[in-house]
């Protein structure tokens, strides 16, 4: 369906005690109530050609690479074509898939190759362990159309 030009995932090893924590869910980092993640571009309803440049915006918090534990910071994850029933758990590290793209280096933009069609895009901030904050810092869904 699509492939990414840039894909950054951070591999993490967990000890036996961490495995137990994962089975029960992980603690979530607090986020300020006014924190907001959003798309700078593309705009909702926009028709584009591939590759699509996606720029991420964040207010009320800072961006830091995965693994960096600092209050009120996180890194971006781009959700592609996920509906509510497919949303990942908010008390576990986000999976790295073609539909949940990690930007653990602290990136604030990317280019993605998308085949012609319609796509639902959403942003979700993750903490140093790729776990969504509490409350989750989640953008509105935008819908874009990609043409030949």
Outline of the structure:
InterPro entries: DUF4399. With 148 residues, the chain is mainly beta.
Topology:
Blueprint: E1 2-4, H1 16-24, E2 36-41, E3 47-49, E4 52-59, E5 62-63, E6 73-80, E7 100-102, E8 109-114, E9 117-126, E10 142-147
Parallel strand pairs: 3-10, 5-6
Antiparallel strand pairs: 1-8, 2-4, 4-8, 6-7, 6-9, 9-10
Pfam family, one: DUF4399
Main sheet properties: 6 strands, mixed
Helix/strand structural class: mainly beta
CATH homologous superfamily annotation? Immunoglobulins
Number of domains: 1
Count of alpha and pi helical runs: 1
Q: Characterize the overall form.
A: globular
Query: Can you tell me the CATH topology?
Result: Immunoglobulin-like
Rg, rounded, reads 15 Å
Instruction: Determine the N-to-C terminus distance.
Output: 14 Å
CATH class: Mainly Beta
> What percent of the residues sit in helical stretches (DSSP H or I)?
under 10%
Element-by-element helix/strand order: EHEEEEEEEEE
- Gross CATH architecture: Sandwich
Tell me the total number of β-strands.
10
**Spans where pLDDT lies below 50 across 5 or more residues:** 1-22
Please, what is the average pLDDT? 87
Work out the strand percent: 35-45%
